[in-house]
C-alpha cells in the first residue's frame, strides 16, 4: 500500500470521520430492450401507461423507442438504490402488455435497420432535438449498435470528505478545483484498472448472429444462430460494440478537468468531412444536429465520465466548467442475464470498494504510452479475459492477469474493511471474497456461466428469452402495494401533463432553438 493511501485511510478511519463513508451516493441507470413473447424487438410505441419518456424522472428511452431506461435517485446505501430499481421494474411489468424486458446486454434478433424505431419525444423543441440527435446517431453509427444495453453506476463521495483530505494535505486550490482534480484522478486509476471489472462482471461472450449484419468478424460459430469467442468476457465493450472512425482521434485527456472539457468542446465545434458531405439538413428535413465530430458531448463513447447535475437548459460541459465534478458515471458494466435487475448488491458493494480505491490511491498523470496500454489491456480482457495464462502490460512489462488481479484485490481489501467499519457488518469484505473466488476459478465469472448455458444446446436468443420470461415472473409475482402503484401512476400522469405543457407553451421555431443550443457551447472561446 502506498504511503499516501495509508495516510488517507488512517484519517478516514478516525472515529470522528468514519461516518463520512456512509454518505457516499449511488445511482443506477439500467437500459433494456422491450421484446415480444417470441423474443423479437417490440415495434410498439413507448407505453403511455409508463408516462412521458421526455419528462418522467425515472422511466425514459435511450436510443430506440424499444430501448427502455430506468433511472434511480441517488441514495447513500446501494441496497436502497437497488430497491428503487426493483420498484421501477415491478411498475413497468404491471403495464407491459404481453411484452418482456430483454435480459442480456447484447440485443435480441433485430429487424432490418429501417424497421428499428428511433425514440420519439413529442413535438416540443427539446423533444425534437432529442429525436434529431438520435437520427444523427443512426446516420453515423447505424441503428443496430444503438440497441446494445448496459448498466451505468453513478458514484460520489461527500464534499466534506474531500474537504477533510484537502485540509490534511495542505492543498491550496479552491475546494471546487481540488475536488474536480481528485475525481479526475479517480478516473485515471479507473482507466488503469477497469479491465478487472470486465473480467469479474463481463456477461456478453456471445451474441445473435444477425447483429453483425454480414460484416466480417473474428467470432466463432457456436450454433446456427449464435456467435461467440471462447474466452470473451464482454463483446459489448469490444470493437464489435461502439466504434467510430470520427471518434477514434478523440482522446480526451484525463490529466485535468480543463483539458477534458476543452477536447470535448473542440469536438462539438469541429466539422467532420464525412458528416459535412451528408449535411445537417436535406430538403428542409433535419438529418443530424450538426456535421461536427460530435453532435453533442454525450455522443462521446467512454467507459467512465465525470459528471455534474445540470440546471435547466444547461449542457453537461457547461455544468462541469462552471461548478466542477460532482460524481462519476461508470458506463462499462454489462447486464448480468442471470439477475432480475442485471446487477446485485454484491456487485454494487465491490464497485464501491473498487471506486474508493481508485479515488484514494495515488494517481500519477497518464503519459501517452500508458493511455494506449490501458486501452490495450481493457480490449484484451473483453475479448479473451478468461484465456489461461493471459498476459497484460504493466509499466512496459508482461504481467499475468490472474497475478495482477489477485494483487489488486489485496490492495482493495483495506478499502472494503474501512467501508464495513463505517457501515457495520462485513458486506464489502464478503463482496471482495466473491470476486477472489472468480479470479481463482474463471468458471464462476458471469461470462463463463453464460457460455456454459449455451453449450448445453440453447441458442443465445433462446437462453436470453428464457431468462427474460423468468425475470418477468419474478417481478409479476411481487406486485407493488396499492400505494406504491398509485404513486407511480401519478408520476406517469404528471409527466404526460408536463410534456403537453412544453408543447403548448414554447416560443420560436425549431431551427432557432437548435442554433441557440449549438451556440451555448461554442460561444465559450477555446
CATH topology: Creatine Kinase, Chain A, domain 2
Mean residue pLDDT = 95
Q: Got a strand count?
A: 14
**Total number of helices:** 18
Q: Could you tell me the radius of gyration in angstroms?
A: 23 Å
For the largest beta-sheet, the strand count, sense and barrel status come to: 7 strands, antiparallel
Ends apart, CA distance between termini: 40 Å
Number of domains: 1
The CATH architecture designation is 2-Layer Sandwich
**Global shape:** globular
The residue fraction in helices comes out at: 40-55%
- Which band does the percent of strand residues land in? 5-15%
Low-pLDDT runs: none
Q: What's the quaternary structure here?
A: single chain
Structural class: alpha+beta
Verbal overview:
- Strands 1, 2, 3, 4, 5, 11 and 12 form a 7-stranded antiparallel beta sheet that branches.
- This protein is an alpha+beta fold and 526 residues long.
- The protein has one domain: Creatine Kinase, Chain A, domain 2 (2-Layer Sandwich).
- Helices cover 47% and strands 11% of the residues.
- The model has no long low-confidence stretch (mean pLDDT 95).
Helix-strand layout with pairing:
Layout: H1 3-13, E1 25-35, E2 59-61, E3 67-71, H2 78-95, E4 100-101, H3 125-141, E5 151-156, H4 159-169, H5 175-193, H6 195-201, E6 206-208, E7 220-223, E8 226-228, H7 245-248, H8 257-269, H9 273-278, E9 281-282, E10 285-286, E11 304-307, H10 316-323, E12 327-333, H11 345-360, H12 368-384, E13 391-394, E14 397-400, H13 401-423, H14 427-440, H15 446-454, H16 460-476, H17 482-504, H18 510-522
Antiparallel strand pairs: 1-3, 1-4, 1-5, 2-3, 5-12, 6-8, 7-8, 9-10, 11-12, 13-14
Helix pairs in contact: 4-5, 5-11, 6-12, 11-13, 11-14, 13-14
Amino acid at each position: 500500500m502506498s504511503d499516501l493511501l495509508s495516510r488517507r485511510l488512517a484519517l478516514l478511519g478516525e472515529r470522528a470521520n468514519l461516518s463520512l463513508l456512509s454518505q457516499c451516493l449511488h445511482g443506477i441507470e439500467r437500459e433494456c430492450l422491450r421484446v415480444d413473447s417470441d423474443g423479437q424487438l417490440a415495434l410498439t410505441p413507448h407505453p403511455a401507461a409508463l408516462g412521458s419518456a421526455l419528462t418522467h424522472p425515472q422511466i425514459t428511452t435511450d436510443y430506440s423507442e424499444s430501448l427502455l431506461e430506468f433511472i434511480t435517485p441517488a441514495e447513500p446505501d446501494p441496497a436502497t438504490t437497488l430497491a428503487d430499481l426493483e420498484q421501477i421494474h415491478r411498475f413497468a411489468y404491471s403495464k407491459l402488455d404481453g411484452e418482456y424486458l430483454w435480459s442480456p446486454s447484447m440485443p435480441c434478433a433485430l429487424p432490418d435497420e429501417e424497421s428499428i424505431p428511433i425514440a420519439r419525444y413529442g413535438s416540443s423543441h427539446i423533444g425534437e432535438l432529442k429525436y434529431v440527435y438520435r437520427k444523427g446517431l443512426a446516420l453515423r453509427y447505424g441503428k443496430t449498435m444503438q440497441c446494445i444495453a448496459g448498466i451505468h453506476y453513478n458514484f460520489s463521495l461527500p464534499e466534506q470528505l474531500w474537504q477533510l483530505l484537502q485540509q490534511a494535505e495542505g492543498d491550496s486550490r479552491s475546494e471546487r478545483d481540488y475536488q474536480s482534480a481528485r475525481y479526475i484522478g479517480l478516473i485515471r486509476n479507473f482507466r488503469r484498472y477497469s479491465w478487472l471489472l470486465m473480467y469479474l462482471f463481463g456477461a456478453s461472450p456471445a451474441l445473435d448472429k444477425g447483429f453483425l449484419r454480414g460484416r466480417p468478424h473474428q467470432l466463432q460459430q457456436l450454433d446456427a444462430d449464435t456467435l461467440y469467442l471462447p474466452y470473451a468476457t464482454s463483446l459489448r465493450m469490444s470493437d464489435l460494440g461502439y466504434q467510430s472512425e470520427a471518434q477514434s482521434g478523440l482522446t480526451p485527456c484525463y490529466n485535468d478537468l480543463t483539458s477534458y472539457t476543452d477536447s470535448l468542446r473542440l469536438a462539438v465545434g469541429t466539422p467532420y468531412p464525412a458528416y459535412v458531405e451528408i449535411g445537417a439538413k436535406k430538403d428542409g428535413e433535419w438529418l443530424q444536429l450538426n456535421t461536427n465530430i460530435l453532435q453533442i458531448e454525450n455522443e462521446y463513447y467512454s467507459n467512465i465520465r465525470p459528471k455534474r447535475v445540470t440546471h435547466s437548459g444547461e449542457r453537461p460541459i457547461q455544468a462541469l466548467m462552471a461548478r466542477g465534478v460532482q460524481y462519476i458515471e461508470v458506463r462499462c458494466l454489462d447486464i448480468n442475464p442471470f439477475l432480475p435487475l442485471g446487477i446485485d448488491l454484491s456487485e454494487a458493494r465491490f464497485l464501491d470498494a473498487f471506486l474508493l480505491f481508485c479515488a484514494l490511491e495515488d494517481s500519477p498523470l497518464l503519459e501517452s504510452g500508458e493511455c494506449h496500454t490501458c486501452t490495450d489491456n481493457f480490449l484484451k480482457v473483453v475479448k479473451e479475459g478468461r484465456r489461461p495464462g493471459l498476459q497484460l502490460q504493466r509499466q512496459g512489462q508482461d504481467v499475468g492477469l490472474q497475478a495482477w488481479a489477485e494483487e489488486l484485490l489485496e490492495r482493495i481489501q483495506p478499502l472494503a474493511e474501512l467501508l464495513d467499519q463505517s457501515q457495520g457488518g462485513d458486506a464489502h469484505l464478503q463482496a471482495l471474497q466473491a470476486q477472489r473466488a472468480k479470479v481463482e476459478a474463471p468458471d464462476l465469472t458471469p461470462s463463463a456461466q453464460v457460455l456454459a448455458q449455451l453449450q448445453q444446446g440453447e441458442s443465445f436468443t433462446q437462453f436470453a428469452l428464457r431468462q427474460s420470461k423468468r425475470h418477468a415472473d419474478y417481478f409479476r409475482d411481487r406486485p407493488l402495494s396499492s400505494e406504491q402503484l398509485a404513486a407511480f401512476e401519478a408520476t406517469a400522469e404528471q409527466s404526460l401533463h408536463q410534456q403537453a405543457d412544453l408543447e403548448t407553451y414554447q416560443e420560436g421555431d425549431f431551427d432557432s432553438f437548435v442554433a441557440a443550443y449549438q451556440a451555448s457551447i461554442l460561444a465559450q472561446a477555446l
